[in-house]
Predict the 3D structure of the following.
Amino acid sequence: MNKNQKSRRSLIPEFCSSARSRSLAWLLGSGMLLCAMPLLTQSCADHYDGDETWSPKVQNATLQSPASSDIKVVSSADGSSMTITWPVVYGAGGYSVALYNVNDPDSPQLVKSDSIDGCSMTASREEDTNYSLSIRTLGNAKYNNREAQETTELKFNTFLPTFAEIPEGDLKAWFEANPIPADSTSHLCYDLTPGGTYTVSGKIDFGGHQVTLRSSSKANYANIVMEAGSYFETFAGFTLKYLNIDAAATSKPLISLSDEPADSLLNCYPTTKTANYYFIVDPVVVQGCNISRLGTSIVATNTAKYDVRVVNVSNSIVELDKTAETANTAAFVYMKSGFITDFAIKNSTVYSREHTDVFFIQHGGRPKDLGDDEQRYVSITNCTLCNIAYGKNFCDYHNGQTQHHYTLKNTIVVDCGKPNFLTGLNKGQNSDYPEWDVNNNTCWRDGADASDKQTGIKNPGLWLTNDPQINPANSDFTPAAEQQEAGQGDPRWYNE
């Protein structure tokens, strides 16, 4: 029994003895569970022994499990958890509940199981996942009520609903033949055939429509070949998911923000200054993608000045190839005139087989343009980074700003930036002004430990000093045992 349940029970005798004269507001203010209303009478009956008039109406019965149609699943605001609720079964002694990840139906993975005295359970939640929930009503010996003979099962998933399925072929040609409805204001998800082969023969302009392109299987990626001059253009949120992308032939940024965004985006976000920025509020996401031979940027702008509120890269491998004929010197993330408010990369590998001199992130704008209280975040967690911006600051933007926040955790850095990689995140400035959250990393340079060079902040955290033993020239990023034990680097490279 958890603290909340104990607290709820301790209130019941007091409530039952005088509930007839109390207001409903008292109940709502007591912090009870989501199902407090249907439990009002039953809770008093089950747990208060002082008055026989409060005995449950259901006695000497075989109980039923909640119907699947009455079970509700609600995601948290950030999507990291979910709350599952069901209606009370009168006379019950609780519920046995189990939640499974069934992306592989032949090998279900238990997420959470518990015996619950209540009618809700909170569990972790993953995107694009199939779940199976089982719930059985438990008996109550006090009232001779027997547990349900059958367990209710509910299958649900966290996939964004599909708007359209695209057959194999040229994506540009398909969108020209099947344009996005001009009046659409929904998030449109286009499914590509798992394992299918696609090309992009030129620019695909999604305009102001929020679009997701994904393989419909999380375990079987679709394959996209970017042809000469091809790219995805947008001035809205945009997502690439579960794709293998060959970018060798294109000289354009993979995701390019339009030079002609809608006027409605200009200064549309509430700030204390008017700086004539175009705001993209919905996130730009690269998730679960393998991108090979990218000679340009993964996200970039040209002439229009944007504040992109969120850019997330996760569970992805990106190979930079700055030796290709189509390559340019633009940064991996390049905001020529504007900036990204919150950039996060996690569980990912970004590398070049050889040293490159391009920045990881390059911004032209800054939070101060929008207001003295505006903030900017750069977060790198559980990543493997190799041969990026060798010999120069890792990032290039206005440094020493009080509004900047940097996170570097559980990451392996090999031949990236100047010897002091850490302050290279802040354009090389040793400054206490930004907020730093740094711990459990490896910095390896020119075949030797460089952790002693990571200075300039008050608390640089723990650094491992052994050779991480990765080999970017052969695209082998399996880290040494010490790094694996410490949970450093892209975890998908760990030995099973």
